Amino acid sequence: MTLSAEQELLAPITLRSELPAETLREMYHYMALARALDERMWLLNRAGKAPFVISCQGHEAAQVGAAFALQRGKDFTLPYYRGLASVLVMGMTPTEVMLALFARAADPSSGGRQMPAHYGSRRLKIVTQSSPVGTQIAHAAGISLAEKIKGGDAVAWTSFGEGTTSQGDFHEALNLAAVHRLPAIFQCENNEYAISVPIRQQMAVNSVADRALAYGMPGVSVDGTDLLAVYEVTRRAVERARRGDGPTLIEARVVRLTAHSSDDNDRTYRPQRELRSLRQHDPLARFVAYLHDHDLLSEAEAQELRAQIAAEVDAATEAAEQAALPDPETLADHVYGS
Ligand SMILES: Cc1ncc(C[n+]2csc(CCOP(=O)(O)OP(=O)(O)O)c2C)c(N)n1
Ligand SMILES: [Mg+2]
């Protein structure tokens, strides 16, 4: 008997131990690297050196889990502004991330033009988002349509927050992708806030995944602090997309461990006890505990890895700080109708 698409995606996740230990340690490396870079960016912002930070903290497992199910250099990634961990897995280097933060000429995302966290790299097939939230969802539908027309089997993976699913772009993109059975994966990272607006004032459905039914595609809700669960759900969605069975909507339920951005003061709308309780669900701590429990990473190895990451973050910061700013002569380059 063949399982229906939804049943197949929701089938119990039993493959955890089948991933090699080396892959699991690599996953942890990317989560820890994303966290360390993110924390450094906040320090640089508070020291007056970086204009703006918008954090990935609490979303790392959802992003690393998903990105490990994609094929680097083949699949298209259209991340939103919290997508630091996803772009690192897809091949963006810490130095490239810092070049964008400092608006340097060599920033691969925009040559120092865009706000930080608008990740893009032609080399890595990472497509930068516009600042109006949700535009990348329609771009992902368009790219997957082009891929289908060309007869390729790459997928377009895009991410966005739950607040963004109230935008028309979300509706139009999912509808188009379902009608044409496009190889697209829509990952909603639901952290239950859109800046200061809690989810209950944003939508009347229980789960963003419920919305998939209305478009005619499978929708799956997964604990986004569980790296391996997100990996497995995304792996199944990628398989579906590559064999021509169409798109999937994945809701990864995550925690936002910081204020919305470096320009936001969440103490005005979020009780501190709520934040304290969310810290109990820190995906990084959860994955370290998993690795320890399964004898996959000793305390000494974890310490060594953290030291190596700290050195990597230092080197990236230094290299980017010393890199050249864009030449003022290039100010009007790429500006339409200047
Ligand atoms: C079209 C549009 N409306 C409003 C904004 C301002 N804005 C930036 S981020 C954001 C919140 C988005 O929330 P969500 O989609 O849940 O993502 P999160 O930041 O929580 O990860 C808003 C309203 C914007 N950038 N674009
Ligand atoms: Mg949100």
Notable features of this structure?
single chain, about 350 residues, alpha/beta, Rossmann fold, five-stranded parallel beta sheet, two-stranded antiparallel sheet, 12 helices, 7 strands, globular, binds thiamine diphosphate, binds magnesium ion
- CATH class descriptor name: Alpha Beta
CATH superfamily: Thiamin diphosphate (ThDP)-binding fold, Pyr/PP domains
Helix content: 40-55%
* Bound chemical compounds: thiamine diphosphate, magnesium ion
- Low-confidence runs: none
Bin the strand percentage.
5-15%
Q: Label the overall shape.
A: globular
* Beginning-to-end CA distance, first to last residue: 62 Å
Order of strands, main sheet, comes to: 1-2-3-7-6
Explain the layout of strands and helices.
Blueprint: H1 5-10, H2 21-46, H3 60-68, E1 76-78, H4 84-89, H5 94-101, H6 135-150, E2 156-161, H7 168-179, E3 184-190, E4 193-194, E5 197-198, H8 212-215, E6 219-223, H9 227-242, E7 248-253, H10 272-279, H11 283-293, H12 299-322
Parallel strand pairs: 1-2, 2-3, 3-7, 6-7
Antiparallel strand pairs: 4-5
The structure holds thiamine diphosphate and magnesium ion.
